[in-house]
Amino acid sequence: MSSHTDADVQTTDPTPTPATPSSRRLVVLISGSGSNLQALIDAQNTPALPNTSIVLVLSNRKAAHGLVRATTASPPIPTAYLALQPYLRSNPGKTREDYDLELARIVLRAKPDVVVLAGWMHIVSEPFLEALRGTREVKDEGQGQDESSSNNDENPVPTNPIPVINLHPALPGQFDGANAIQRGYEAFQRGEVDKLGVMVHRVVAEVDRGEPLIVREVPIEKGESLEVYEERLHRVEWEIIVQATKRVLDEVKPLPLEDTENA
Ligand SMILES: Nc1nc2c(c(=O)[nH]1)N[C@@H](CN(C=O)c1ccc(C(=O)N[C@@H](CCC(=O)O)C(=O)O)cc1)CN2
Ligand SMILES: NCC(=O)N[C@@H]1O[C@H](COP(=O)([O-])[O-])[C@@H](O)[C@H]1O
Asked: Of all helices (H) and strands (E), which one includes residue 196?
């Protein structure tokens, strides 16, 4: 069990999940409590997410409870931590884009089929997305290497574009950005909008403007508390994050027919 320090990127379980021809690999990025990560953890290798394992949980906040959810999962899920400001302090002259490329390097080393942003509170830049698409080579300058990383991952370039999807607690075009739940709730109570909801969308450089994959309205009552509304909203999120992840996995790595019959 290793601890996460500001400058280091370490896994809590150096035993990487072996890749098998039909198994599907997820990397999940988090910043907070990780209840949506937990929904994905619980769905692994069930009919909801057949033949699928989370191979890395990456957080930009050391105190994110989602890291605990990963390390206490059975089997434990490798974790990594890299925050922007400590990275910049530890690497004078490096930029936010350099940080994003280091994020991409960490993600690519895990060889995911799909990357899920589940409460990930950092806007990723185009270089990150290009690295995941495979249109930008990410040279491993030896910075932030996992203790368990091996040199054969020096230039992790994906052979196929790796989709990145994001869970956003608002309807398409509504309340882009952070704090969307509270902003939407308050707008509804002021009568400015007549419906609210959640979606999972593909991630593009423009924040929350990628193609919606799954959109669900969340019922809300005039006068009800934010807490009551938010609890209802999160329950919908836990469903659609699994559904959207399965849909994108099936796009990029469909299961062999015999596996679906057994799923
Ligand atoms: N390029 C993209 N990056 C991200 C997207 C996206 O669609 N395109 N989705 C977001 C998730 N998100 C809303 O769904 C979101 C998260 C965070 C922010 C934001 O303003 N972050 C600030 C830092 C805030 C903080 O640290 O508390 C920032 O990155 O400077 C906006 C939208 C994930 N990334
Ligand atoms: N803009 C992104 C954003 O606001 N994401 C939101 O953060 C929460 C994470 O909860 P969790 O950490 O319990 O999964 C979720 O409600 C998710 O929609």
From this structure: strand 196-202
